[in-house]
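Support request from a user on the community tier.

User writes: "When I paste my structure tokens into the form, the page sometimes reloads and wipes my input. The last time it worked, I copied everything first. Here is what I submitted, just in case something in the input itself triggers the reload:"
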């Protein structure tokens, strides 16, 4: 869907990066992360900034880019990116049909806005339907070509004094 609307692969990567989560990035680190030339990334960053979708701020001698959350289309683009990644449908199915899911977190690369091809999730709940979870994992891979890795805990680590490590 998104790739039929936006023809530039670099622009799609930037939209995924900035609108999947609240992320920021520098030109060189983005070029390295996407395995693209700095020139192609710079061109797309400039286009998105000129369109008002990204904000560029000075951080020393370098520019730091981030999504412009006050842009009128911010939420719509964020929703499109979420649908493109399939996360909205996956989360909805898990919460509605898995049993007693108290909370569901996206962790790992996707929590940092990196489309690595693996979606890592943490589910908090008891007596979850693991057969249905296996089914969803297989269907998600077939539909989105993304591997889903799920960890299950009975208690939320944030509520029992623990913490979640994103991107580890």
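"...and here is what came back when it finally went through:"
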């Amino acid at each position: 869907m998104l790739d039929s609307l936006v023809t530039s692969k670099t622009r799609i990567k930037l939209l995924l990066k900035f609108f999947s989560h609240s992320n920021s990035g520098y030109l060189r680190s983005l070029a390295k992360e996407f395995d693209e030339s700095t020139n192609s990334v710079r061109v797309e960053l400039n286009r998105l900034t000129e369109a008002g979708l990204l904000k560029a701020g000075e951080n020393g001698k370098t520019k730091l880019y981030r999504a412009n959350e006050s842009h009128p289309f911010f939420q719509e683009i964020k929703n499109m990116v979420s649908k493109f990644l399939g996360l909205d449908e996956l989360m909805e199915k898990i919460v509605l049909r898995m049993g007693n899911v108290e909370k569901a977190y996206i962790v790992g690369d996707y929590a940092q806005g990196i489309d690595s091809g693996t979606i890592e999730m943490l589910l908090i709940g008891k007596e979850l339907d693991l057969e249905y979870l296996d089914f969803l994992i297989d269907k998600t891979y077939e539909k989105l070509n993304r591997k889903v890795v799920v960890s299950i805990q009975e208690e939320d680590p944030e509520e029992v004094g623990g913490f979640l490590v994103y991107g580890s």
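Agent notes: The reload is a front-end session timeout and is unrelated to the input. Helices lie at 2-5, 9-20, 27-34, 38-50, 74-85, 87-97, 130-144. The first strand starts at residue 24 and ends at 26. Escalated to web team.
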